[in-house]
Amino acid sequence: MLSKEEVNSPALLELQKHYSRIITLLGEDVRREGLVKTPERVAKAMITLTRGYELDPREVLLSARFREDYKQMVIVKDIDFFSLCEHHMLPFYGKAHVAYIPNEYITGLSKIARVVDIFSHRLQVQERMTTQIKECIQETLNPMGVMVVLEAKHMCMQMRGVEKQNSITTTSDFTGAFNQAKTRAEFMDLIRNKS
């Protein structure tokens, strides 16, 4: 839901004008009953889908940072995300799996999911998003290591181009303790365990 400022923002009005023009260029009548409010709806949707530019993921992590003497892996898995591919502005969506090994500090578990949400609500490529999540957690919490795995379906591959409906793209990135194959393997085993 948009805030009062967003509903009255110059960006929203400008986006509405552009979407109205796009609909017309596609050969439709923007005055047709079913399309009258479409430019406004799409403009609001785009502001919502790209709200990650307005948020600082580091502040989110720091807002719930606690000193804790815990030195084992913390995993938040199966975090649903939705993003827009920056090449075609079509959705890609899937699951994020994030682990870190604390070094004096932990963060609230929901904050990991919020970081994923912030980076996914930007125009993205899956590879960059994977690295941004990893770097944000590493730089903000300074853990002994971070690992991020994203699994996603891309509408730009399903709706257009090669039209492969069941392909899944997996990306990963890691730091510190996860440079050890044994630690990475433990993480992968734990995220594959569905119990």
Structural description of this entry:
- The protein is an alpha+beta fold.
- The protein contains eight helices and seven strands.
- It has helices at 4-7, 10-25, 38-49, 57-62, 109-120, 126-141, 155-158, 181-192; strands at residues 65-67, 74-85, 91-101, 105-107, 123-124, 145-154, 169-174.
- The strands form two sheets. It has a five-stranded mixed sheet. The chain has a two-stranded antiparallel ribbon with strand order 1-4.
- β2 and β3 (91-101) form a beta hairpin.
- α2 (10-25) crosses α3 (38-49) and α5 (109-120) runs antiparallel to α6.
Tally of individual helices: 8
Identify the strand order in the major beta sheet. Answer: 5-2-3-6-7
> Which runs of at least 5 residues are low in confidence (pLDDT < 50)?
none
Instruction: Please report which band the strand proportion falls in: under 5%, 5-15%, 15-25%, 25-35%, 35-45% or over 45%.
Output: 15-25%
Distance between the termini: 34 Å
Q: Describe the global form.
A: elongated
Mean pLDDT over all positions:
94
